[in-house]
Amino acid sequence: MSLSLYAATIPSYRQILGAVSGLLRTAQAFCTEKGIEASELIQARLAPDMLPFAYQVKSTAVHSLGSIEGVRRGVFSPDRTTPPDTFAALEARVAATLSALEAIEPAEIESFVGRDMRFEAGNHRLEFTAEDFLLSFALPNFYFHAATAYDILRWKGVPLGKRDFMGRLRLKG
């Protein structure tokens, strides 16, 4: 059995982004229930030198759809825009990302195989093939930021479990 590049990326992005959407709804409900200002969670960090929850959520969009857009252009650079600062705006970013990912045709992703791809950050450059960029850079970054968003919420007391992180599994059916 061979695994396509599409199957290795897009369904996983969609699964975890769906879970991130659920994390946002749970976090917002937690704030309402506990009388906590939303900014307390949205700006929360695990460590002083780490970026806040909002950045982590934004980065799930950047390292999923943004990585696909980067492959289309042949270059990916870090997104330095300010993250959304409300649960509604974060949810809108995730929803727009999911919608765009759902519209991607498998044939387009398969056409990326073997294509040159470059990561650029300032003077720093890394050369990849598209598939190596997606599988060794974009996917690990995507999961890192999704897990960090989950961890921040857990640390702040939001009642979440592993199933909340995993999202909707792709079961045989």
| Helix vs. strand class | mainly alpha
Q: Please, what is the oligomeric state?
A: single chain
Q: CATH topology, anyone?
A: Four Helix Bundle (Hemerythrin (Met), subunit A)
Q: How does the overall form come out from the CA principal axes?
A: globular
Summed up, the helix count is 8
Order of helices and strands: HHHHEHHEEHH
Task: Report the uncertain regions.
Answer: none
User: For the CA atoms, what is the radius of gyration?
Assistant: 17 Å
Kindly report the spatial arrangement of strands forming the biggest sheet: 1-2-3
Question: What is the CA-CA span between the terminal residues?
Answer: 19 Å
The total beta strand count reads 3
CATH architecture: Up-down Bundle
Tell me, rounded to a whole number, the average pLDDT: 97
Instruction: Give the % helix.
Output: 55-70%
The top-level CATH class is Mainly Alpha
CATH superfamily label? dinb family like domain
Notes on the structure:
The chain is mainly α and 173 residues long. It has a single domain (13-166), classed as dinb family like domain (Four Helix Bundle (Hemerythrin (Met), subunit A), Up-down Bundle), CATH 1.20.120. Helices cover 61% and strands 8% of the residues. The protein is built from eight helices and three strands. The chain has helices spanning 5-34, 38-42, 53-62, 65-73, 87-102, 106-110, 130-155, 162-166; strands at 75-76, 116-121, 124-129. It has a three-stranded mixed beta sheet with strand order 1-2-3. A hairpin with a 2-residue loop joins strand 2 and strand 3. Helix 1 (5-34) packs antiparallel against helix 5 and helix 3 packs antiparallel against helix 7 (130-155). It is globular. The two termini are 19 Å apart. The model has no long low-confidence stretch (mean pLDDT 97).
